[in-house]
Amino acid sequence: MLEHDVIIIGGGLAGCRAALEIKKQNHSLDVGLVAKTHPIRSHSVAAQGGIAASLQNVDPEDDWKAHAFDTVKGSDYLADQDAVEYLTKEAPEVIIELEHLGVLFSRLEDGRIAQRAFGGHSHKRTCYAADKTGHAMLHELVNNLRRNKVKVYEEWYVLQLILEDTKPSQPLLSRENIPNEENVIKEAKGVVMFNIADGRLEVVRAKAVMFATGGYGRVFNTTSNDYASTGDGLGMCAAAGLPLEDMEFVQFHPTGLFPVGVLISEAVRGEGAYLRNSDGERFMQRYAPNQMELAPRDITSRAIVLEIRAGRGIHPDGSAGGAYVHLDLTHMGKEKIMSRVPFCWEEAHRLVGVDAVYQPMPVRPTAHYCMGGIPVNTDGRVRQNVTQLTEGFFAAGECACVSVHGGNRLGSNSLLECVVYGRRVGRAIANYVINRKMPDIDEKKYLQQAQKRINSLLCQEGNLRINSLRQDFQDTMTEHCGVFRLGEVMKEGIKKIQQLKAKYSQIFLEEKDTHWNPELIEALELQNIMIVGEIILTSALQRQESRGAHSREDYPTRDDKNFLQHTLASYSRDSVKVDYMPVVITMFEPKERKY
Ligand SMILES: Cc1cc2nc3c(=O)[nH]c(=O)nc-3n(C[C@H](O)[C@H](O)[C@H](O)COP(=O)(O)OP(=O)(O)OC[C@H]3O[C@@H](n4cnc5c(N)ncnc54)[C@H](O)[C@@H]3O)c2cc1C
Fold this sequence. Notes:
Flavocytochrome C3, Chain A, domain 1, 22 strands, eight-stranded mixed sheet, alpha/beta, binds flavin-adenine dinucleotide, 595 residues, globular, Methane Monooxygenase Hydroxylase, Chain G, domain 1
């Protein structure tokens, strides 16, 4: 059995930042980091537009409080304000740290870090490296992993979280652990993982397990996310019996390139691009007259869908009634486009043959970001229910819900969350493991279970290809739980996904090998996609109000009386049970949200 003091699952920004912090706090700790891709290919590398922090380089009026207010207002008041306070207060410091690590941010004339406008932010506070910010950050962090002797397991697929019930022998450390009747605490002891190259199975045990497994864009049929964003960490937690928080809040980014769904960064609008309908009109004046194209994403995505529904979308021949709108950069000029957003220009050129210097880009909303996730406190400790924390289990980054984004995330706050909470959770883990002993694990039992799971997939004698089942599932999610939602439509969606789940046993894998078998990995990922999708739909059906990205046509207003609460959804094979948890309000009382 492999063992480390700490095992981190996820080589994106959150996982790498946490690993470095643990080593910085205590270099003698033995840290392992697992990724199913090469860490450098984690979705973080694709982040474009930037990372928010009130550095005041461009706007001296900015400060952390203004950033916190924008974040809470953007969240439609569902964010936990203690968590937002850490996020925004620590932001300038983590940016300077990144710069000292070697991250090459774009500069102002005087050499200070440049900052641009972003949707929902009242000041110019987004730091960037052209439109390749994630790339610049992740490369430096991964380089530093090796320098700091973090053991990296790349291209290992984690199949299972080892979580067992325990009765704590020593008094619980956290005041949040109010004992319940049985006083049963769930304890994470390690993971089971599968080597994608040679099919080896291993159990890893650790004094602390951390999930930084990223998002679930692939639950939907059109997404800006990479193929690996299949919600594995979320699926594994739910399967192990842990609840997931606020899963109904799915961010649809307004400007996915039509028809592929690939992201055209908000930075393009931050630098001055316009959204236009088939009449050539800048339609955002109807929906957000002050912020226009820089309204938050939930509002802008809804505006685009409403324009398309009203027949003001555009067809490829330029006529009205089509399925997309235009993102127009043509007034910005070649020099600005090529220096500030060169990658977006290149994407549109390469993927749909549009030269954005002279022609508008075709765009429509695309599934982009997961506001909900594994419920954690501000030290990244995972909750097992409303009042209790698990032992030995931490999470950060997009897979976690701390919750700094509430019902809707502001652009450039996610990279920030990864580094602020990656660092915080790294510190918490370094402290936590000092007095903890290595857990005992029945290695044989877990290996046998995993082997059985893989063998039965390889031997399944169905006639259904993974691709077709996955496509049906993704289409169902998009159709029944998209930008706008309706109770009856969601109920029907839940029925459909139950039927699709039942078809999983009819999947047939053409490739029977365990060495380099992408089909096998896709089959495992599909299990997670299905669990996560069902939780999203059920949580969305239960929330009978409209808040942030969750927009119900049958309940069009926000209902603070009944729903100013976080959803905690627990999964079992036959059903999803929904519970609620209070929101932390320390600074800003909920108000109507206008832009
Ligand atoms: C195209 C795009 C552009 C974006 N631009 C911005 C931006 O400009 N600003 C901003 O703030 N945010 C942006 N975001 C959001 C932001 O990039 C992500 O939320 C953030 O990078 C997520 O980082 P992470 O560390 O949580 O996860 P990821 O970077 O997604 O990494 C997840 C890691 O987990 C590993 N993993 C997952 N499952 C398993 C498993 N079963 N076994 C082993 N390993 C596993 C993966 O291999 C990977 O290493 C963008 C997102 C996209 C998709």
